[in-house]
Write a sequence for this structure.
């Protein structure tokens, strides 16, 4: 897949510092599917939590929900990263500074 056809853009600022942005209708649709995948567990937890408020089962359900949300988050991020055009912001800023330095020396 060419970079122009990828549904996401990943702006890399450092090894663990990045931003993923959907690109176009295809990117937003895929992002929407990932959000929709989180809705059923959230509704199930809300219903179960309301029925078991103040009981030990609530805390077990909360732990399961938090683990499921963590797994969902990691899966969504890795899936989007694999389908994203990568833009290295740090390299772009470095190149821009070098060009500005060259231009200022030429004056």
């Amino acid at each position: 897949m060419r970079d122009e056809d990828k549904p996401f853009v990943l702006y890399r600022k450092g090894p663990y510092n990045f931003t993923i942005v959907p690109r176009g209708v295809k990117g937003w649709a895929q992002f929407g599917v990932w959000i929709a995948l989180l809705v059923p567990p959230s509704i199930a937890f809300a219903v179960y939590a309301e029925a078991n408020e103040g009981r030990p089962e609530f805390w077990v359900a909360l732990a399961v929900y938090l683990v499921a949300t963590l797994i969902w988050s990691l899966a969504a991020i890795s899936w989007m990263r694999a389908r994203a055009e990568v833009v290295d912001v740090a390299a772009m800023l470095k190149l821009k500074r070098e060009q500005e330095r060259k231009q200022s020396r030429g004056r």
